[in-house]
Amino acid sequence: MLAGLAGLVIGCASGSSDATRSTDPVVRRAEAEVQRQLSSATGYDGPRQGPRARRTGSIVFVASDLTNGGVAGVAEGVRQAARAIGWRLVVLDGDARVAGRRQALRRALALRPSGIVLGGFDASEQPAALRRAARSGLPVVGWHAGPTAGPDPGSGLFTNVTSDPLAVSRLAARYAIADAGGKAGVVIFTDPRFRIALEKADAIRAEVGRCVQCAVLGLEHVPIAGAQQRMPSLVSALLQRYGRRLTHLLAINGSYFAGSRVALIDAGRQGDQPPFAVAAGDGDASEFQRIRSADYQKASVAEPLYLQGWQLVDELNRARAGRPASGYLAPPHLITRSNVPAGGGYDPAAPYRENFRRIWGG
Q: What is the domain extent for residue 20?
């Protein structure tokens, strides 16, 4: 089975050699990691214990941008969990603007909820609102709201829910290394407005840089909100500059690749020809469709978005009960054409919903 999986992913982009794979330990590690990811998926049951549910309450989910597939997926998980635990939910959209998120947070505080979820933006962006929440004794949890998972009292977060962002980045880089047979030439796209995005890009660059015959050709700062408009001209320029040296486009999430697809079509590239897109994070319906159709995207390092939505509600319940954060960290999972889900998101076949209901006493 593993040999068949290796044939799906190794040496597809730029003419790999057995000598490269046998002598460079970075390439061997990348190949082994890809094989392991495609052959198993474990670690998605959620936390084992926690406080029973506070049966009354209301929460507000403040989204960075609900057109972002990752944010929308987590919001759906929060909806499911809020319904299960018996809490009212209000969802507010920050419309991909700092000012929009500031306004949404003001509205959230005015509603006097039992808790607030920050969905997909850095907590340090809105310090005044989080100080107000702290003075009111209002717990705030975040999804992708900082560079690391876990409690972040300095930023006003009870806890930040995310897969390990550096593990996500390393896995995306290793896929590109393995896919190119140790001869990857990559350009990385990130959003300089967010600490987590910059740290993920740095981790991708470092991992590719360890590969002897690989090259980081460029690091491009492109705000996610304007990616679809900016990517066509940018990718066209990169194709002219690097030609066949460019084997993979790596981005901190899949929002960049609808625009890159336009440039590749205009350049006469086919969907199964390099450069191939690899997303380091989230994993949404549009990405999965591109992967499924061999439509310029080969892989995504997906997070279990619905599970993380349930975890956000569970963490708020712990905060309200005066208990510490769960410490649970859902692992990321590599998605390729060989294992792409039939639905619109990565929802692991694990009994996490039943587990949270058991913890809450449902």
A: 8-40+165-302
